[in-house]
Amino acid sequence: MKFAAGGFFAMLVLAPFAAGAAQPAARFAATLQGTIVDELEYVQTTVTEDCRSGRAGHGGRRLEVRSVRPTAIVVRRGKGGPVYRPPRLIGLRVVATTLAGGFSELRSCRFLPPEKLTGRCGRSSGAVRRLNAEFRRGRNAVRFQPLGATEAATACGLDRTIPAGWLDVVAGRIDEKALMSGRARRVLARASTIRRRSIGDGPALDVKQRTTVRWTLTFRRVR
């Protein structure tokens, strides 16, 4: 009887661990939504043998990133953290929009009276692209596929492009404990930042850039 009682007690102790080991992987529908806005203000000076002109303007670019549809994700408990299957978000849609802007220019040429020019640029939609994003461990929860040539912005009347921001400008962390607990109905990872910088090209160009980046990664539990 003593051995039987001991065996019964061991079964009671081990039962919760066995239940935890047999717990099925959590299933989620994952979506991502983000915006990147680059606002530019510039002063550009052009000097030739007979003329000198100074132009000031503004403009920029906006990117909208959104999941075309939710990605079905299975999350399992692995060594050192969660394991995602598939290990990426599939089918992110990126829409680029040129922001409205304007410029004014004062031109002085030899033997001619000073001339003032102004111009306006309207808002316009540009390229649409598809890309993926990979899950990762550590400081940044997601690795976003680079956009290449699309990662550039310009302003109204400016004759060059400026390196622009992208989603990986700011890192976001996933609440892994909530994701693997098996009880959370929704888990969010949010990231946002505002970055300001000056870009100069000697006395010929001075650009002030303000980059705002926000993105939200949402995991919704699937029954």
What is the compact description of this entry?
The protein is mostly beta strands and 223 residues long. The chain has helices spanning 2-21, 176-180, and strands at 26-47, 51-67, 71-78, 81-85, 88-98, 101-109, 115-121, 124-135, 142-144, 152-153, 162-163, 186-200, 205-221.
Write the layout of secondary structure elements.
Layout: H1 2-21, E1 26-47, E2 51-67, E3 71-78, E4 81-85, E5 88-98, E6 101-109, E7 115-121, E8 124-135, E9 142-144, E10 152-153, E11 162-163, H2 176-180, E12 186-200, E13 205-221
Antiparallel strand pairs: 1-2, 1-3, 1-13, 2-5, 2-6, 3-4, 5-8, 6-7, 8-9, 10-11, 12-13
What does this structure look like?
Strands 1, 2, 3, 4, 5, 6, 7, 8, 9, 12 and 13 form an eleven-stranded antiparallel sheet that branches. This protein starts with a helix and ends with a strand. The protein has helices spanning 2-21, 176-180; strands spanning 26-47, 51-67, 71-78, 81-85, 88-98, 101-109, 115-121, 124-135, 142-144, 152-153, 162-163, 186-200, 205-221. The chain is mainly beta. The protein has one domain (25-221). A hairpin with a 5-residue loop joins strand 6 (101-109) and strand 7.
SSE string, helix = H, strand = E?
A: HEEEEEEEEEEEHEE
Q: Quick one: biggest sheet?
A: 11 strands, antiparallel
Q: How much is the average pLDDT? A: 85
Radius of gyration: 27 Å
**Unreliable sequence segments:** 1-22
Secondary-structure content class: mainly beta
Distance between the termini: 44 Å
- Oligomeric organization of the protein chains: single chain
Q: How would you sum up the global shape?
A: elongated
